[in-house]
Amino acid sequence: MARSSRISGFYNLTPAERRRIVADWASTSPDQAAATVELLRSLGGLSLEQADKMVENVVGAYALPLGIATNFVVNGRDVLVPMVIEEPSVVAGASFAARLARAGGGFHTEATEPLMIGQMQVLEVTDLAQAAANLEAGKKRLLDLANSTDPVIVSLHGGARDIEVRTIAASPVGPMLVVHLIYDCRDAMGANMVNTACEALAPLVEEMTGGRVNLRILSNLADKRLARARCVVPVKELATEDMDGETVAQRIVEAYALAAVDPYRAATHNKGIMNGVDAVVMATGNDWRAIEAGAHAYASRSGSYTSLSTWSYTVGDPTTGAGPALVGSLELPMAVGIVGGATRVHPLAQFSLQLMDVASAAGLAEIIAAVGLAQNLAAIRALATEGIQKGHMALHARQIATAAGAASHEVDAVSAVLVAERKIRVDRAQEVLAQLRSGESQSSRT
Ligand code: MEV
Fold it and tell me: Which of 74-83, 215-224, 419-428 is predicted least confidently?
């Protein structure tokens, strides 16, 4: 039976109740669900032995919150999204925006083939044009050699696809060639296989060019491995207490316009996108630094840094019954894998993949793009209406109430007073808590 990610009141459940719901989503048997509940209860999911095999000089493990974003529909499929992040409001923002997008059919996504680029830097070439021609003529030999380094990926229909040669006429050390190996990584992120292939190719590249190969490393500007997401939000969904949906949509488009033309705003706008992107990348054990590097380099591809997303207003089409709507789109490099590295080793990364039920790296990339677009919508909608602090304040107030000693059944009442008074301080929370408790003890005596 199709399940709905629209879980009303998920926010108000206890962590234990939420754990049971997501364990059922991620599991195919009661035993597996029970094991998943235990894994989630372990607050980090990583044993010291596992951590010790991942990096060097391990002394422990460092836990971050794992939250679940609800309401996502991606290509017609309901998805619960795991997000690892330390910042309040991000999970709530993604869930809220996914609910808005859901009203317009959710997110429509696609991904290109998983093609990564490996670079070889060739120096001391006497005739750049002749060397480039030799590489072109020797392409088949190069591709065959690259493929011989990883028969497994070749058997999975991946492997070396093409050789591209770029001539750099001038640099701080003079002219050089850069040889790009285009490599289909299938469901892996691919850094290891691309680096291995580049290192194996270097002697042959030297033979063909008469030059010296220096660097042999993949490029994080993975602009042949893109993920795209699009959503159409009916304007009536955007209405707030003080503003009609039409006005909110126009203001969101205005907010986007500044990011489109101003790098100062684009950096913050894209940071909002990456709040969502990175959180899912982290939850699945992928390399978020690689994704960050690729995203920001891609945002600069025109020569000036700009928004990764676009937002526009459409009046709709009365002939089809489509009403006015806000249309968003996002495109960015998405070099993520579902096999290898921490994705395989970290039990919570495995849980995250099972929860989203993704069968390919491309499927994961598409969900991540949808989350990035949702996160962007949540941020610019808040900025263009009530401002970002109101939403933050409610969550912050809950944290302050807890810090002041409020028990879980007291947190909502204390934080409501703090928000109403706009005094999000521990000393005030303590006063409110004391008043609440004295009121309760009086009423229990009467
Ligand atoms: C904060 O983490 C992210 C935002 O600054 C994004 C934005 O301004 O669009 C709210």
Answer: 419-428
Ligand 1 centroid from CA 270, angstroms: 8
3-state secondary structure of 124: coil
Beta strands in 42-95 (DSSP E): 66-74, 77-84
Active site residue 242: no
CA distance 32 to 26: 9
| Distant-in-sequence, close-in-space partners of 30: CB < 8 Å, separation ≥ 6 | none
Q: What type of residue sits at position 295? A: A
Q: Are 266 and 307 in contact (CB under 8 A)?
A: yes
Residues contacting ligand 1 via CB (< 6 Å) = 87, 268-269, 271-272, 275, 379-380, 383, 388
Give the closest residue (by CA) to ligand 1 atom 4.
Answer: 272
Residue 38 in tokens: 């235990």
Structural contact between residues 381 and 283, judged by C-beta atoms closer than 8 angstroms = no
- Whose alpha carbon is nearest atom 2 of ligand 1? 272
Q: Which two tokens stand for residue 357?
A: 């039920």
Q: Determine the residue of 292, 375, 388 to mutate for testing ligand 1's pocket, defined as the one with the most ligand atoms within 8 A of the Cβ atom.
A: 388
Cα 279 from Cα 90, distance rounded (Å): 9
Task: Count CB neighbours of 123 within 10 A.
Answer: 16
pLDDT of 125 higher than 90: yes
Ligand 1 atom with the shortest distance to the CA of 388: 10
Report the predicted TM-score, pTM, of the whole model to 2 decimal places. 0.92
From the list 87, 244, 357, 427, the catalytic residue is: 87
DSSP 252-283: HHHHHHHHHH-HHHHHHHHHHHHHHHHHHHHH
Q: How many CA atoms lie within 13 A of 312 on its CB side?
A: 7
* Cβ–Cβ under 8 Å, residues 98 and 380: no
Q: Is 317 a catalytic residue?
A: no
Query: Which tens digits make up the pLDDT trace of 52-79?
Result: 999 999 999 999 999 999 999 999 999 9
User: Band of the pLDDT at 1, cuts 50, 70, 90?
Assistant: low
444 falls in which pLDDT band (50, 70, 90)? low
Examine the residue annotation and report whether 392 is marked as an active-site residue of this protein: yes
